[in-house]
């Protein structure tokens, strides 16, 4: 086991600094990155990487951070990339985050000071039962924390510093990639994999201690536009066909006891409306479609279309358009062709003194798309929990284990070369 110790609390210092930088992405923006403030964190990370001694660290025009830790071995080792995203979810404010460290957690309810209605209870967060004696970081109750994915960012920076400071630890060339806009599905739109030059990768964006995820949802996005008929409401009988009401009927007709996030688990997919807007004349809803295989995903899209057709038959003067676009696909298709990637990740987790948990994730990571772009990329735990909301939390000790795991991955690849 490598002798990484967070003696000077540099890991949580990095993390608490990063979460105070607002990097919320915006799905409605057309710019790249979607919000310029994501570059604020990117500039900080580049400065820290340069200070560590990583000479080529830089931020590009699209908000991506690239850096290289040169090989210090004579072996021909595959080039490994560690990747995390800098943006936070649009679902909850990331402005003016006030991180709080709850030291030596003993199982008590954690009441957040700026909103006493926000309470972390072990009964609602089962992973807290494994955190007795550990230090838990939360926000103050009015924002998300940003552990998704600034925990991963901090862990990669901390691991990079440890490797540079300990040149006796042999490793091949290591690439670092920090991305914008992952939370809105655009995290690798402008990633330059030729410049990156990595053979395999690991996103550090997982939850529970010891988890390594080699399977994700396959995902599509859908935009449904209803074109109704507007008329003066005082003289609308027999004329008006409200796009708002048609759209409401469509959403109400979708299955509630299955195929919805509220009613599914494990390998079950769903059709989920995430936003609606419009007027009597025209209304729009955006959906996300999820399944673990492409056939079920296609069936979900067909069910949505059939539901719309069935509803709109009652409105002869109205029309609709349903546009379904691919977001990402289950990375397991790619990773199964390169079993050493996951096997080496599992070995690295074991060397950190942790029981590995190989599993699927009901979501996606940058690795989902990177895998199909030519950079096979499973997901490693980062210690982030309850993300996208005000109850988000992270464990300092789990984050330390993530740093050990990152370093161990580099070592395992070198040893097996």
Task: Name its key features.
30% helix, eight-stranded mixed sheet, 10 helices, globular, alpha+beta, 417 residues
How is this structure best described in words?
With 417 residues, the chain is α+β, with helices and mostly antiparallel strands. Helix content is 30%, strand content 22%. It contains ten helices and 18 strands. The chain has an eight-stranded mixed sheet, with helices on both faces. A four-stranded antiparallel sheet has the order 4-7-18-17. A hairpin with a 5-residue loop joins strand 1 (58-59) and strand 2. Helix 3 packs across helix 10 (396-416) and helix 5 crosses helix 6. The chain is globular. The relative contact order is 0.19. The mean pLDDT is 96.
Short characterization:
By secondary structure, the chain is α+β, with helices and mostly antiparallel strands. It is built from 10 helices and 18 strands. 30% of the residues lie in helices and 22% in strands.
The helix tally amounts to 10
Side by side, the strands of the main sheet go: 1-2-8-3-9-16-10-15
Radius of gyration: 23 Å
Number of DSSP strand runs = 18
N-to-C SSE string, H for helix and E for strand: HHEEEEEEEHEHEEEHEEHEHHEHEEEH
> Biggest sheet: strands, sense, closure?
8 strands, mixed
Structural class: alpha+beta
The rough form would be described as globular
Oligomer: single chain
In round numbers, the mean pLDDT is 96
